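User: ok so my PI wants both of these folded by tonight, can you help

Assistant: No problem, let's get them done. Here's the first:
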Amino acid sequence: MSFPVDNRGYYGSFGGAFIPEMLYPNIEELRTRYLEIIEGEVFQKKFRKLLKDYVGRPSPLFLAERLSALYRCKIYLKREDLNHTGAHKVNNTIGQILVARELGKEKIIAETGAGQHGVATATVCALMGMKCIVYMGEVDMARQRPNVERMKLLGAEVRPACSGSRTLKDATNEALRHWINHPVDTHYIIGSVVGPHPYPDMVTRFQSVISEEIVAQLEEQEGRRLPDYVIACVGGGSNAAGAFYHFNEHKEVRLVAVEASGQGLSSGHSAATTALGRPGVLHGSMTILMQTKDGQVVEPYSISAGLDYPGIGPLHAHLFDSGRAVFLSATDQQALDAGIRLSKLEGIIPALESAHALAALEQLDFNRKDVVVVNLSGRGDKDLETYIEKGDY
């Protein structure tokens, strides 16, 4: 197993399940049954068939020749933006809704920031004929309006989170409150590798198809199974967890996680958790999060709604703490510039989340023989207004 987690849900010092007593039955049911369900032959057959025929996997591994020439190495883009719904999120929602059906649940709730997880959840609920409620911060609803309308078109009810910073953290809070009040018939599809155990492990397993495909595709295109670098953006961190999964035990592969530093690390408007945070409990797990001296969560900021989160998943906290992964950060402007650069060089407009990963190419020193994989976690349609308003192209 590439991200070993103990039976209490810990990756080293991070993880666990810090939950209110009223959530215990939900979490315990999931914890005791999720491995039995997802490792079953019938489940895997359904899951793999939907990934192939509905999502459109495998997603291509594209050699970006003009980008490679610019950075003097060989850069491949893992094209998660070409999945049905436009991002990696659907890998997880397909898996979780199949789990929910096995558990006999009738309704689904979810939280979303950039809207991609909300769209992916609404999509699979429409596919399976299940009621769907998505919580989304008011701020994110305004800046990701197209995704709000997609969710509604797919039949989901979108409920605004109006407290705090009115972004992803607050949407997650509202979703958890809802679940506490509807424990019997409802499953909560968490969109990232955050939350109480077993969510980080379960979501990672569903997203591990990304690195599974990279291994096979590199062998076909390069005659080697391992790249020199794998680069991915990290908010909660599900796309990075999936991209890193099959390479974690291969120490020669450098894992690079890129957080959002917003207007700058010292600006007070940032979401660079590992640079600014310290250990604490957030949304049910021990992790690293941005907090005040007395333990109050610091409101995060990023131009990218999907990275606008004050913590990271516990497995990423462990990767940072152990030194296995390098954690970098990119400002709003650096991400905008990287997104525009890819658009003009390769004809691919990336999501602003993915643009943060691309921005790391400016911060790393490569040699000509290096094979670099950047996980292009989503497409930029949803961010077009932001590119128009703030980009210089």
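One down. Here's the second:
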Amino acid sequence: MKFYHVYILLCADGLTYTGITDDINRRFKEHQEGLNNRAFTFRRRPLQLIFQQEFNDVLQAIYFEKKIKKWSAKKKLALANGNFDLIQILAECRNASHYKYHSDQD
């Protein structure tokens, strides 16, 4: 059975990078060695692998990667730290500013 990994890297400048691969060790090594000088992570090395989640269905992995790519760095770091309560709080804070929570009456 083939496995797919969604991963988050913490870059030296504090930014995060989210990706998907079928070989987490190889892919991390590629990022760390800077094989592609146009890659997002190239000038942001050294990198830390702070999160990985394994999937046996590539479509589920792609869905999860696309979902967390849209998250803030704070939310990604909360996921990497296993702080699921904070993920919920951060999601609620963002939703509270959503237009549908504002009344038409001021």
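The mean pLDDT is 90. The chain has four helices and three strands. Good luck tonight!
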